[in-house]
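To the wet lab folks,

You asked to see what we're planning to order before we commit. Fair enough. Below is the target structure as tokens, and below that is the sequence we designed to fit it. If anything looks off to you, flag it before the synthesis order goes out.
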């Protein structure tokens, strides 16, 4: 048995998909016999986490009156109605990220206190935000084995916009080198992220993807889909990952003009929080019947909706971020429905193709997307059971093996 500290800003009961990785690892590492403590932010909510022997929720300035954008965060997380706004302009000021000033000043002392109270064998820090890894660096100095887990790259294919100043870019890259040089091992959710880390850092890199929990119990969601149409369903957020439905909406208009009888057989359903811009785009799309929104749903209902859908939709940025394989993709695989990925260059498309779970199209070319929609309606692909390699019991077993290797 190993004593493991798992550090991530987002965790259950947050409905944001990033929290599912913490949930899966805590639950199934515990079942493998390990003692898991989770250090997270109060912004994720309160309460226990299944499998965790202890949960420490550090304060976060995002919850204070100093955060004038609390309403937007509530909309993003599905806790309030209305459209959420683009990221704060401050995100282009603070290196490496805002969490370095909102959460790290509380989380780092909490981590050091925990390490003094309990001798951890290993600390696993999961980003984004990249500043989370500063906690691993500090505990490594205390003699704790440290694994840095990357759900996105740090300087590689940043989700955020490029730093406006060269000084910021150099500071960010220098901080990345300084921090990660001390990690005993690195974990990446996709092969492109892993390949970049292997090339730039002298440390083992393991690919452990995001995944799904086979024990999830979908429920509810009845009456949200039109049984007379082919329902192509998107759950979760788009703008939060810098993706946009613009090309998809243009493709739907093209399909409606060129093949009205085929378009009449389709509905595209968005379930999840929308940004203010997305609300305006959908309202102005003039695609009544073809496009519907059902709002933010509880997680169990979103999972049920995925299983009731005829097919499922992933929207990416395409070539700008080839490393992307969103967390919801693996829930889609568990649902056993055909998956259409907009972003044929991405890791998400490669995973879907390898799993025989669907196909992909361009993220930006309406003609390519319209052709993919025709194919989806005329020759929907058959799918099988979700590959066990993407289930959290298997992924946690691989993480446990890595923890044992670095501890030895």
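Sequence we intend to order:
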């Amino acid at each position: 048995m190993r004593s493991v500290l798992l550090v991530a800003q987002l965790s259950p009961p947050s409905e944001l998909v990033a929290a599912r990785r913490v949930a899966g690892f805590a639950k199934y590492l515990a079942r493998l016999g390990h003692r898991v403590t989770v250090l997270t932010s109060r912004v994720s909510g309160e309460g226990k986490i299944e499998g965790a022997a202890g949960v420490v929720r550090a304060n976060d300035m995002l919850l204070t009156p100093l955060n004038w954008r609390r309403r937007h965060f509530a909309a993003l997380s599905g806790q309030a109605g209305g459209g959420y706004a683009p990221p704060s302009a401050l995100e282009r000021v603070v290196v490496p990220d805002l969490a370095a000033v909102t959460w790290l000043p509380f989380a780092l002392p909490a981590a050091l206190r925990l390490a003094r109270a309990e001798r951890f064998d290993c600390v696993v820090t999961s980003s984004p935000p990249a500043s989370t890894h500063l906690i691993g660096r500090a505990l490594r100095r205390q003699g704790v084995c440290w694994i840095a887990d990357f759900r996105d790259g740090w300087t590689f294919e940043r989700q955020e916009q490029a730093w406006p100043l060269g000084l910021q870019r150099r500071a960010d890259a220098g901080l990345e080198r300084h921090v990660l040089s001390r990690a005993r091992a690195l974990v990446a959710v996709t092969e492109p992220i892993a390949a970049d880390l292997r090339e730039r850092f002298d440390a083992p890199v393991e690919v452990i993807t995001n995944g799904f929990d086979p024990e999830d119990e979908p429920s509810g969601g009845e009456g949200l889909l039109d049984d007379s149409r082919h329902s192509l369903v998107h759950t979760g957020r788009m703008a939060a990952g810098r993706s946009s439905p613009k090309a998809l909406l243009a493709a739907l208009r093209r399909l409606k003009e060129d093949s009205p009888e085929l378009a009449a057989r389709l509905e595209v359903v968005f379930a999840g929080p929308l940004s203010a811009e997305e609300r305006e785009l959908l309202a102005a799309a003039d695609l009544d019947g073809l496009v519907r929104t059902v709002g933010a749903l509880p997680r169990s209902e979103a999972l049920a909706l995925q299983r009731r859908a005829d097919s499922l939709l992933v929207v990416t940025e395409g070539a700008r971020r080839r490393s992307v394989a969103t967390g919801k993709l693996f829930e889609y695989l568990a649902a056993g429905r055909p998956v259409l990925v907009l972003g044929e260059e991405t890791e998400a498309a490669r995973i879907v193709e390898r799993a025989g779970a669907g196909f992909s199209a361009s993220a930006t070319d309406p003609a390519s997307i319209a052709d993919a929609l025709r194919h989806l309606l005329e020759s929907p692909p058959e799918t099988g059971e979700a590959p066990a390699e993407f289930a959290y019991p298997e992924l946690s077993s691989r993480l446990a093996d890595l923890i044992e290797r670095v501890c030895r």
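Structural context that might help your review: The chain has a mean pLDDT of 92. The two ends are 13 Å apart (CA to CA).

Thanks,
Computational group
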